[in-house]
Give the backbone structure.
Amino acid sequence: MTSAPSRRQFLLSAGSLLLFSRLNATVRAFAQGERVLVLGAGMAGISAARTLVDRGHSVTLLEARDIAGGRIRTDTSFGAPVDLGASFIHGTKGNPLVALANRFGVATYDTDREEALYVNAAGDLLSGSVVSQAQREFDALFEKLLALKRGLIRDKSVGSAASLLLKRVRQRRGAAIGDLVSFLARSELGIEFGADLNQLSLENFDEDESFSGPDLLLKPGYMSLVDGLSEGLDIRYGQMVRAVAWSSSGVRVTTASGVFDADRVVITLPLGVLKRGDIEFSPGLPSAKKTAIAKLGMGVLNKTYFKFPAAFWQTGEDPVGYIGNVRSGGRNQIPEYYTLDQAVGVPIVFGFTAGAQGMRFEQLDSAAITTAAMNSFRKAFGTSVPEPEMVMQTRWSSDPYSYGSYSFVPVDAKTEYYDTLARPIDNKVFFAGEATHRAYPGTVHGAYLSGIREANRVTRSFS
Ligand SMILES: Cc1cc2nc3c(=O)[nH]c(=O)nc-3n(C[C@H](O)[C@H](O)[C@H](O)COP(=O)(O)OP(=O)(O)OC[C@H]3O[C@@H](n4cnc5c(N)ncnc54)[C@H](O)[C@@H]3O)c2cc1C
């Protein structure tokens, strides 16, 4: 940190030759260590910093919170580690996070949906035959959406394309299967992207890539990967970035409590934060990047955790159970739950809410959330279901250091915007983070890989 002049003075470069020469002096001093600032200590920032430090660069991470991890946050107040942000390593084959978990000796659980329960509005369990028929209908609907996408002249929402198809399924197959297919569409397409179906672009539908193999949960929580990767890194906490400026001589980052000069900067701040426009960029972001920031969507996925005195749900052999609350009806009803008792040894359940409903949940108090959840649990599992001992609601869209959960491509936006967001400026300012990874947006592995990608670019920029 320097006690250099204010950012405003720095920007007025025409009249600030003296200040510029002072910056030049600072940067020259740093140049021997090829000094890099990384903004944000989430997975992208940490992977960028780790890669650069391992190559001998001198790196400082500036983080607004008092803890690393960003949208990875493991809480232990329930008596077992539970993840308030990312939970799953999505896919095992080729996923670099699996290698990381092995490297740090982190135990994982395979999860799948073989033991999924689907409960209808009356609280009745749907039969295996209804579930498998609905799954086949959903797979067919997915293929039809892809065909509609191929013939598209003008972009429209996945929701508008799906609604007619869903209506037909219902007419053909009846209410029970129709309801479950609609539920699967909302769950697999909407909750997955943290958005409502009528927000998602059909033209860009299913453009991202994924790793095959099961999803994994990390036994000690996702923070175990952050802890392993960040060991020994220079992370300055409580440093809320307010301005980023660059010139031919170097970069200057102003935080709420200091000014930092370096040769390069890697910006990993979440799309939600960039969208707010509270950070001043000088001489200014290119207009294509501004468009990408404005047009990409920041989705909302929230979790509600419940800890019960005992498990009242059927526990199977899978470490994680799934309960789909089909046609949940009420606005405060959580559509899907995961049971964790087998995995963590404590009777914990968590539910997902996404899009508009996820945002609404941020306004609800814990009593309203609990009443609605208990209503549906008691319908499905009987009146003896006990009250929860603890309830915790995440509020990612109100989080001032994320303003949302992860990115998605809305109607009239393009997947290319992810590449635009990733494009460096003047070989000095670099961008990483989940919303800069076109193949794997919205994921921890996307964030991780984007950090390595930018570290490589930074190293090349010095040669
Ligand atoms: C509820 C939820 C569930 C999810 N589930 C999964 C999952 O199961 N699997 C999966 O792969 N992904 C999941 N994700 C997505 C995944 O968590 C993110 O894609 C990934 O963690 C993003 O990493 P990042 O480094 O790009 O951003 P972040 O982790 O957000 O890191 C950015 C950092 O910048 C800091 N920051 C913000 N503003 C400032 C500022 N002004 N100054 C300084 N620092 C600042 C933040 O505090 C943060 O530490 C989930 C996300 C959420 C919210």
Q: What stands out?
A: Residues 1-32 have pLDDT under 50 and may be disordered. DSSP finds 15 helices and 22 strands in the chain.
